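Sequence decides. Consider this:

===
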Amino acid sequence: MASPDVSEAVKKDSVVSLEGRQRQAGEADGTRSTSIWANEMIKEAGYANFRQLVRAQGGPDFEQVMAELFNGLLPLYKELHGYKYPASIFPPTGHIPGHILGHMWARRWDDLEPFTKPFPMSRRLTSPKQMFEASQDFFASLGLGNMTDTFWGESVLGEAAGSDFRIKQCTEITGHYLAVTHHEMGHIQYFQQYEKQPGGFRDGANPGFHEAIGDTIELHDPGASEKTRPAESDSESDEFYLNSLFLMALKKAAYLPFGYLIDNYRYKLFKGEVPKNQWNSEWVNQRCQLMGVSSPVLRSEEDFDAGAIYHVVANVEYMRRVQFQFHQSLCQAQVLRRIFTNAASTATLRRRKAQSGTSLHWEEALFKISGTRQISLLDYFAPLQAYIAAKNKENA
């Protein structure tokens, strides 16, 4: 996991500086973790490998669903891929050099948003506390209640001084961090909803549900969050909504191929399909094939690029893919706008899903809240895809 200093530099440094930083990060982190990243502990739990555990949680067709979701998103991803940078900085293969995307591993692209968004924006929130208060106000408007006095009294919402490392979130006044604030508050709300379940059921319906709760709120609340509002524009304008969808696409549509890469790569290793002396070449090849992204520097089997990513070493699943169904079901009447218009009925639906914890299979929990067992992403992003495709055609 990159340090705050490195993360900040990745947003601002020149292309040449970013190339050097990515080389240093891969050499410092990835090579150290190769020997400890293995598949042994899960065998003691009765599974042949970690992939079997994932299939037990997600169903026997989980990998097929992942592949279908990835392929369904490719048209939008390709438009985003070609939207900003000139061909002159690309290698002959047409891949994007990963270090220019604003994130150390090109996992999300939303740090590009300030200078790539379709329309100018204005800022209305000026402190970390205001961002958390805005998030609380939105949850409260859904009937989910306020944070406790202890939460406000004990939480650390900004960067701590000196050597105090108790901080959970180093909040910056950006649209990205307001979205992170909603996301983290969503975890707490989910905890509160299933607290009355027996101990064995006090968890998300599958590993993706906990992540989807907070992220769905972010999809609901582009206007209340004030993070994508164009200057001299209101929250009902086409410009406002294209900005909102654009930021969401940089974070979510650009993220999904990365998430698919991570888990697809790990499953192949868990199944023993890749010899250890080819782990890094397999990573490089899949990254080029699935993301269209390449390393700015030559890689070898002495490196282990995937091992430099915190969530890989910490064994956190990357495919968090259900938030768009949650959102679509709660805003069915507003296909384009997706604006929350009935907080009371929505809160009832949200509680009904969240309160089940793991007492329902994740597909049943998804159907309970959304009325569907299918994945829908392109419908959500359709207006943006049309806009970007037209711009790409103009600039071709």
Notes: The CA atoms of residues 156 and 168 lie 7 Å apart. The longest helix spans residues 62-81. The chain has a mean pLDDT of 69. Strands lie at 96-97, 293-294.
